[in-house]
Design brief:
The complex is a heterodimer. By secondary structure, chain A is an all-beta fold. Chain A has no helices and eleven strands. The chains are: A mainly beta, B mainly beta. At the A-B interface, β5 and β10 of A face β4, β5, β9 and β10 of B.
């Protein structure tokens, strides 16, 4: 158990809908990362937050948004969902914002868009 | 871009040694991680290299050459449970971690 908690574990929704994925980082970790992993694809970095502020942005679509709240939990909002958004979405956390801080992954949220 | 290249698939025999290579663009490099990921599960941390050389941790070792933009993960005394994907991840510019597509290792009896 990495200490990173993600909900829901599984989600099935229709195209055009909107979903919110939730992540609670490890106790004491200030950084939260979101990654997308499609079937047979590598981990694609979406976005990083550090202590409530956006720190780095990857290949995140405009239909997607995220935020980190004062209690350090984070949410990833996915809207106008398309079939291609079906993937495993990982949240990860680390103590700091910079290199050398090992990131620990949650178990992921499986999103299926039908 | 920050291309991180790894072989897509490798196969090895139980008890053998396997080396998984990773090459990356060196500009902005700040560190390299190796993660193990079993299918459908979360990646788990294996090793971290920021200086040149070999880091050994039990059956697993990781090597880094910063000037060459090259790393490898060495797995010794392979076990069936080592069948998994191995992800090379590079930190760029101090806070941007990018993952390679992963190497799917199959260990056969």
């Amino acid at each position: 158990d990495s200490g990173v908690t993600q909900t829901p574990k599984h989600l099935i929704t229709a195209t055009g809908q909107r979903v919110t994925l939730r992540c609670s980082p490890r106790s004491g970790d200030l950084s939260v990362y979101w990654y997308q992993q499609s079937l047979d694809q590598g981990l694609q970095f979406l976005i990083q937050y550090y202590n409530g502020e956006e720190r780095a942005k990857g290949n995140i679509l405009e239909r997607f948004s995220a935020q980190q709240f004062p209690d350090l939990h984070s949410e990833l909002n996915l809207s106008s969902l398309e079939l291609g958004d079906s993937a495993l979405y990982f949240c990860a956390s680390s103590a700091g914002a910079s290199s050398g801080n090992t990131i620990y992954f949650g178990e992921g949220s499986w999103l299926t868009v039908v | 871009g920050q291309n991180i290249d790894q072989p897509t698939e490798m196969t090895a025999t139980e008890g053998a040694i396997v080396q998984i290579n990773c090459t990356y663009q060196t500009s902005g490099f700040n560190g390299l991680f190796w993660y193990q990921q079993h299918a459908g599960e979360a990646p788990t941390f294996l090793s971290y290299n920021v200086l040149d050389g070999l880091e050994e941790k039990g059956r697993f070792s990781s090597f880094l050459s910063r000037s060459k933009g090259y790393s490898y993960l060495l797995l010794k005394e392979l076990q069936m449970k080592d069948s998994a994907s191995y992800l090379c991840a590079v930190v760029y510019n101090n806070n941007d971690m990018r993952f390679g597509a992963g190497t799917r290792l199959t260990v056969k009896p």
